[in-house]
Amino acid sequence: MLYFLSVRISVIAMGAAFLFFIFNHLKGWILLIAIALIPISITLAYNTPHFKKRFEPSHTENAVLEDVDYRKLHWEAVFMSIKHKLLLGRGTEGDRDDLHSIYNDKKLTAAYEENYNAHNQLLEIGLDFGILGMVIFLLYVWFLIKNAITHNNKLLLLIIIIFALYSITESIFVRHSGIILFSLLTSLLILKKEDEIV
């Protein structure tokens, strides 16, 4: 499934989950073989034609940019838009005309034509709920991390790490599946004691 999605951050998240699994369930030479398979698998996945095509440089009206440079411009546009409603944001139903206008000004053709979201969860929250919403979200994540560490809940910590990784390049809470999955997993795992976690 990750191959068809071709989202690089999902491969990194899968690697983190795989490391969690192997360090908690494997020992000896089997552990060493499993660790060696991680970079081999990632290298093979990235060198398939599907992945290579998916990650060709992005086009603007002026130039062809590598993904990192394109994302910098993209996030810069989002920051500029957040400044317009800094404290409380636009609300979940607020328009994003100014963001799309900034995309257009920066010649980010695909972002403008396809009405891109922020492609970063924290920035997405900043657009909708401003600085106040960002602070509340970060406090909630801190509460989850503290709870996971206090109760030695490794699975909850792994789930938080995976969602944090996805949040770097994806706005995962703009879809019902992201909201429901995060809410369900964290709610269930926060109630579990260490000896009950499978």
UniProtKB/TrEMBL annotation:
Keyword presence, Transmembrane: yes
Residues spanning the membrane: 5-23, 29-46, 125-143, 155-174
Predominant cellular place of this UniProt entry's protein: membrane
Alphabetic keyword roster: Membrane, Transmembrane, Transmembrane helix
Top-level taxon in the UniProt lineage: Bacteria
Subcellular location: Membrane
GO CC terms: membrane
Membrane-topology descriptor: Multi-pass membrane protein
Pfam families: Wzy_C
Domain O-antigen ligase-related: 2-138
InterPro entries assigned: O-antigen_ligase-rel_domated, WaaL-like
Family annotation (PANTHER family): O-ANTIGEN LIGASE, TEICHURONIC ACID BIOSYNTHESIS PROTEIN TUAE
Protein name: O-antigen ligase-related domain-containing protein
Species, as recorded: Patiriisocius marinistellae
